[in-house]
């Protein structure tokens, strides 16, 4: 159990890193653009040293961008850290803490938490905190080396605050999208059969119970189809399990193509599939089953199996009855399916009344 928890803590960081590096590339582009603006701003405000520092910064961000582009991520990290730490420190020492250059250091916090393992994140955050505090304490005792007029200092402060505000907003929206995407993927993994793309048995049971509850409220008919691929073991034995998996995938496609958008389809187990037909009585459910069976006969399976095998299905049909639960309706469809199998397969059998 401890091993499982350990993996849960550390593996997601690995999964997130490709997305993180793409985000880092965008941030390098944005930061380079900001430094170009800084170049002209500091020239206008009479601080030529900081103006030309931004030329170096643009070059470092360009290097980081191309390092990320060619997956030289460690080089990119060194360049970005060196630029931000150096640029922020130099800006504070030259024109003062009130310039707001220290805000840029705070942007490392979410990046560190998302990209690094827990141990390295702690080390990096402690180092960043120490650097931040050191700069603050230093400016208690040291006057700015190249002070600028108070109005100009206010302009720089507001500009830095606005840039950091915009960047934090961008990062927050990105992390939110990442969380939503991860939740969607987890939901799909929890509800979908990976081989066929259909609902898995657990989620199909949940959806079926909802249909049963709706039937009890409204009395609208609900039809059930239980489908089984005939002689599937022989296909696996003759053509291999990869061919068998391909067949199951195409079986799911054929069933989907012959049904309505509101019909529910799931892989019930192995080569067996369950279909729930809302607002459909047993007669219409049987017609749907025959349509699916005929679609199997019309399909050329040789390209899928790599041989001359024909893939057929047998289908058991039932309709939900008043006062019964899901298992009873599925059980009657299963009994009808069994009769179809014993009667020669490639058949649709309706439940017995």
Automatic annotation (TrEMBL):
GO molecular function, one term: diguanylate cyclase activity
TM regions (residue ranges): 23-43, 49-68, 75-95, 101-117, 122-142, 154-176
Domain GGDEF: 220-353
Keyword Transmembrane helix (UniProt): yes
UniProt keyword annotations, A-Z: Membrane, Transmembrane, Transmembrane helix
Lineage of the organism: Bacteria, Pseudomonadati, Pseudomonadota, Gammaproteobacteria, Pseudomonadales
Organism annotation: Marinobacter salsuginis
EC number, UniProt record: 2.7.7.65
Required cofactor names: Mg(2+)
Top-tier EC class: transferase
Record field: catalytic activity: 2 GTP = 3',3'-c-di-GMP + 2 diphosphate
Protein name: diguanylate cyclase
Keyword field contains Transmembrane: yes
Superkingdom classification of source: Bacteria
């Amino acid at each position: 159990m401890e091993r499982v928890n350990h993996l849960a803590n550390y593996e997601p960081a690995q999964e997130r890193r490709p997305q993180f590096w793409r985000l880092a590339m965008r941030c390098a582009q944005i930061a380079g653009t900001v430094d170009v603006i800084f170049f002209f701003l500091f020239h206008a405000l009479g601080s030529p040293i900081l103006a030309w520092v931004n030329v170096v910064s643009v070059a470092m961000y360009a290097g980081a961008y191309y390092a990320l582009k060619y997956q030289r991520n460690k080089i990119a990290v060194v360049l970005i850290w060196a630029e931000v730490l150096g640029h922020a420190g130099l800006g504070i020492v030259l024109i003062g803490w009130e310039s707001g250059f220290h805000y840029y250091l705070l942007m490392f916090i979410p990046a560190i938490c998302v990209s690094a393992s827990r141990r390295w994140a702690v080390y990096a955050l402690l180092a960043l905190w120490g650097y931040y505090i050191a700069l603050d304490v230093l400016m208690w005792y040291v006057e700015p080396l190249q002070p600028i007029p108070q109005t100009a200092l206010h302009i720089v402060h507001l500009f830095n605050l606005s840039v950091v505000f915009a960047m934090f907003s961008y990062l927050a929206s990105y992390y939110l999208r990442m969380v939503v995407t991860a939740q969607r993927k987890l939901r799909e993994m929890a509800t979908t059969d990976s081989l066929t793309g259909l609902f898995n048995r657990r989620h199909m049971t949940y959806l079926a119970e909802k249909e049963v509850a709706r039937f009890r409220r409204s009395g609208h008919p609900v039809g059930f189809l239980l489908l089984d691929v005939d002689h599937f073991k022989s296909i696996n034995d003759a053509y291999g399990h990869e061919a068998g998996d391909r067949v199951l995938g195409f079986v799911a496609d054929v069933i989907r193509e012959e049904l309505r958008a509101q019909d529910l389809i799931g892989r019930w187990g192995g080569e067996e599939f369950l279909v729930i037909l809302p607002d459909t009585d047993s007669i219409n459910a049987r017609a749907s089953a025959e349509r699916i069976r005929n679609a199997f006969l019309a399909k050329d399976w040789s390209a899928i199996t790599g041989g001359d095998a024909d893939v057929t299905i047998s289908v058991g049909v039932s309709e939900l009855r008043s006062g019964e639960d899901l298992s009873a309706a599925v059980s009657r469809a299963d009994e009808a399916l069994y009769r179809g199998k014993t009667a020669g397969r490639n058949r649709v059998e309706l439940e017995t009344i």
